[in-house]
Specification:
This protein is mainly alpha-helical. Helices cover about 55% and strands about 5% of the residues. Strand 1 (about 160-165) and strand 2 (about 170-175) form a beta hairpin.
């Protein structure tokens, strides 16, 4: 009986102790695996390309493979900055109902090449890293840092939010921006479109 009386207050305390905010193991694993896979896909898509192939444009206003890679590298930094920006506001669980897309649906929307959105000026490639090699190095450095953040962070990413100006995306939680980042790296699909052009250099 004495043990029962000791157990009751303990159970009562557990029932009213708030769950520690943060990512689940499943959340971390899913995002990290997706980031690693999209990184591998990007590296595979540009492996062995010559300077002529990297800089080929199918039209004057289209992007080359090298420019696609720079856009991805720029986005890696800018998207993480967006995530950090969302954390400046207080966590707001009541806003959860505004999130309409699942993680998988958001990833699918970003990788859908049938739906194209004009890139904002801050994401436009300008040759800022100096060379293709330096651009790839910058991307890899930022991707590594973002994965390390995901491994360790205790930030309540599920209860902070970002609202896209594109209606099809709407409001997403801050964690989902990592899936957006990974899906965005699938610009490899755009790279493959460039590579499949009839005039793409053989070497």
């Amino acid at each position: 009986m004495k043990k029962l009386f000791l157990l009751i207050p303990a159970l009562w305390l557990m029932s009213f102790t708030p769950v520690k905010p943060g990512l689940t193991k499943a959340d971390r694993k899913a995002a990290i695996e997706s980031l690693n896979q999209s990184k591998a896909d990007l590296l595979a898509s540009i492996k062995g390309l010559s300077a002529e192939q990297l800089n080929f444009k199918s039209s004057p206003d289209s992007w080359s493979v090298a420019e696609c890679v720079e856009h991805i590298a720029i986005s890696e930094t800018n998207l993480f900055g967006m995530i950090q920006g969302t954390l400046k506001e207080a966590a707001n669980p009541s806003k959860r109902s505004e999130v309409k897309l699942t993680d998988a649906q958001l990833f699918a929307a970003i990788t859908d090449r049938s739906y194209k959105v004009k890139t904002q000026e801050a994401f436009v490639p300008t040759g800022k890293f100096g060379s293709h090699e330096a651009t790839v190095e910058e991307f890899l450095k930022k991707r590594k840092a973002n994965i390390e953040y995901l491994k360790k962070t205790q930030d309540d990413l599920r209860n902070h939010y970002f609202t896209f100006p594109v209606e099809a995306l709407g409001t997403v939680d801050s964690y989902q921006l990592f899936h957006f980042m990974s899906g965005h790296t699938k610009r490899t699909l755009q790279i493959e479109e460039v590579k499949s052009h009839p005039s793409f250099p053989k070497k």
